[in-house]
Amino acid sequence: MGEAFDRLWAALADSYTLERELGAGGMATVYLARDVRHNRNVAMKVMHPELAQRIGAQRFLKEIETTANLQHPNILPLFDSGQVGGTVFYVMPYVQGESLRHRLNRETQLPVDEALRIAGEIAAGLDYAHRHGVIHRDIKPDNVLFHDGRALVADFGIALARTHGEDRTRMTKSGVSLGTPEYMSPEQAAGHHNLDRRTDVYALGVVLYEMLTGEPPFTGATAQAVFARVMADEPRPLLLQRKTVPPHVDAAVARALEKLPADRWQGAAEFAEALSNAGASTWAQRRRALSGWRRSVLPWAASAALLLALGWAGLWRGRGTPSSAGPMRFSVELEAGVQPSFTPIVRLSPDGRQLFVTAMVDRREEVLRRRFDELRMEVIAGAGQGDQGTGNSRPFVSPDGQWIAYAKQGKLRKVRVEGGPAVDLAVADWAGGSWGRNGRIVYTRAYNTGLWIVSEGGGDDRMLTAPDTAAGELGHWWPQILPDGEHVVFTAYRTPLERATIEVLSISSGKREMLVTGGVFGFYVPSGHLLYAAGETIRGVPFDVNRLAVTGPAVPVLDSVAMNPTDGAAAFDVSENGTLAYLPVSSYVTETDMVMVDRRGHEPARCQPGIAITTRASPRTAAAYRSTSGRPTPWGTSGCSRWGARAAYA
User: Fold this and answer.
1) Residues 34, 38, 43, 49: is their CA dihedral positive or negative?
2) Which in 78, 132, 281, 546 has the greatest CB count within 10 A?
3) What pLDDT shows up at residue 266?
4) H helices within 503-555, ranges in order?
5) How far is Cα 562 from Cα 552, in angstroms, rounded to an integer?
6) Residue 575 belongs to what domain range?
7) How far is CA 509 from CA 435, 488, 505, 513, in A?
8) How wide is the angle at C-alpha 325 spanned by C-alphas 320 and 326, nearest 5°?
9) How far apart are CA 327 and CA 647, in angstroms?
C-alpha cells in the first residue's frame, strides 16, 4: 500500500496489525487494524506528521487523556493513543454501520421524526462532553456513526479540552481553525480562541438543518465563500423549504443558528428540549414578533413585495436651501418567483434616476434595476448567479450610473446596467465597495480582510488596510470614497455592534481616524452630514468634509430600516441630488402618516397634506406637505421636505 503504510505496520506490529486504509482527510488517515492483544477490529486514526508537529505530540496526548475518559452511550469511545513514526495516533472501535454522511448521500433528506431522534442523540452525547469540559469543534455528518441504529459522536480525539490556563492552544493547520466550513460557527470561522459549548450547538443546528432540507444552510465554491455567508447571510427558514417541519422545530433551529453565541441555546440539552416542543413556544412567539432583519428580508406572506420609501431630501442644493419637491413614497412590486435577497442591498445611481436592489429570482440571486421613468424592474443580464451557483455579492454603482460592480465566483466584476459581458477587475469574495469619480474603486476582498483599491480598468489591485485583530476587528467593510477622491469612510466591524467604529482613511498615507463609535454603514451626504446605522435606526451627525471631523451630536433621522447585524449592512442609500431610498423593516404598510421631527426625534409640528398625487405605480407618486407652524426645521428648512420628514407606519 506504500512506504508510509509499511513503516506504520512495522512500528505498530507488537500491538496492532494494519489491514487496509479506510479513508483519508485533511488532518489524518484512518486505517482498519487488528488489536493483537484483544483480537478485535479497531479503527486507527493517524495524524498527518506536519499537523502533529504543529500541535505538539505531548500536548495532543495530554488532551487525549481528557477525551478518553468520556463514557456515554452516544459517544464513540477511545481505546488507545500514542506516538509512532514522527506522528500521533488514537484508536477507536471499528463501527461497521454507516455514517450520517453516507445516509444523507443515499437519502438526501430524512423523515422529520428520524432527524429529530438523531439530533437528540447527538445532543445527549454533546451535553455529556460539555459537562466534562470538552468541546468537539467539528460536529458534522461525517463524524456521526450508527451502531445498531444508535447515533454515536466520533472524533473527540481532535477536540479541545476546555482549560482556563495560559497554555491553551488551538489545534490548527496552516493557521485555519479545525472544522469544516459549512458547519463552523461564526466565531469559529473568525478564528476566535474562546470557543465554548455554543459553537457545538451551532454545528448541531447545521446538521439538523441538513437532515431536514438536504444541504447545510450556507454553501459555496470555496471555504472563503462559505465563511462569508456564515458571517453575513441569514439561513432560509425551514418552513419555506419543507412544510412538514413543525413550527417549533423551525424556531429552535433558527435560534441554534444565531450569529451571536449569546442569542443561541446555551447548551445542547436546552436545544434538544426545544426540539421536543418543551420550551420552544416562547422563542417561537418572540421570533414571530421580531421587527428586525429576518422578517424584513424573508416576509412570511405569500406574495413578494419590496417596499421602498423614497424622499427628496434637498441635500444637493446645500444645507439652507429648501427642496423643490416634497417627500414621495411608492412601492416596487416584485413579480412571482422573486423575493428579497438574504442580504438585500439598496443602491441608487448618483443622479437619483435609477434604483438597484438584490433579489432572489427563481433561487438565483440577481441584481434588479428600476429606472424611475419606467414601471417595471428588470434583471441586469450578466450580474447575477446564473448557472454557477455562487451568486453576486453587495453590488455598487459607478459615478455615471452606467456600470454595476459586484463580487462573483471569487472575482470583483463590473457589468453595464443595460446588461452584457462581465469584466473581471480583481480577486474578491465580498465587494460592498465604492466607485470614485477619479476612476478608483475601494472594496473589501473577503469578510475578514481590510480594504483594497483597484482602478476601474482592473489589474492593479493593492491592499489599503488590515484589520487589527488584537483590537477585536473582524474586517473593514462598507467603504465610501469621499468627494476629494483621497479619503474613504468605512466600518471597522467588531462584535457586539456597540464596539464597531466608523473611521476615515487617507488612501495615500494609510492614516486612520475614528469618527463614530457604536455605528456601522457610514455614509456621507452632500448636506454636510454623516449618516450611519445603529440597529434599525439611521442616525446623522454634522460632518466637516474638509476637516474630516464630526462637529456635532448624533440625531435620529429614520426609523425601522432593515439592517443585517451580522455584516453591518443597512438597506438604504442617498443619491447626490438628495433622493433617499430604503427598505423598511416591515414589508407591508397599512397606513401612512407623514410627520416632522426635530433633532431628538420629537414631533414639534404635525405635517398637514397640501397636494397629493396618488398614482401608485408612477415615480411621480408624491405628496406635498407643509408645517402647521411654518417655522424652519432644525435642519435649516421650512416644512417637511427635508431630513426632518419621515414616514411613520402603523
Assistant:
1) negative
2) 78
3) 94
4) none
5) 26
6) 295-464+568-649
7) 20, 12, 8, 12
8) 95
9) 9
What's residue 312's pLDDT?
A: 34
Taking Cα atoms as reference points, which of 116, 115, 125 lies closest to residue 73? 125
Find out whether 200 and 136 touch, Cβ atoms under 8 Å. yes
Residue 514 covered by a domain: no
The rounded radius of gyration (Å) of the Cα atoms in the chain is 28
Distances (CA, A) of 317 to 222, 355, 478: 47, 21, 26
Range in 6-10, 38-42, 200-204, 509-513 with the lowest mean pLDDT = 6-10
The tens digit of pLDDT for each residue in 417-437 reads 998 889 999 999 888 999 999
Inside any domain, residue 121: yes
Q: In angstroms, what CA-CA distances link 37 with 15, 42, 85?
A: 7, 12, 21
Q: Which of 35, 127, 138, 155 is catalytic?
A: 138
Residue 549 included in any domain:
no
Q: What is the grid cell recorded at 581?
A: 431610498
Phi, psi of 478 (to 5 degrees): 55, 60
Q: Decide if 501 contacts 494 (C-beta within 8 A).
A: yes
Cis peptide bond N-terminal to 619, omega within 30: no
Q: How far apart, in whole angstroms, are the C-alpha atoms of residue 314 and residue 350?
A: 14
436's enclosing H/E stretch is: none
* C-alpha cell, 213: 432540507
Q: How many CB atoms within 10 Å of residue 155?
A: 26
The cell for 217 is: 444552510
Report the C-alpha gap between 532 and 478 in whole angstroms. 11
Q: Are 277 and 163 in a shared domain? A: yes
Given 267, 289, 311, which residue is the final one in a domain? 289
Place of cell 456597540: 498
Nine-digit cell string for 574: 442617498
Q: Looking at residue 590, what DSSP letter applies?
A: S
Which tens digits make up the pLDDT trace of 18-49? 888 887 766 778 888 898 888 889 888 887 77
Give the Cα separation of 468 and 80 in Å (integer).
42
Q: What is the domain count for the chain?
A: 3
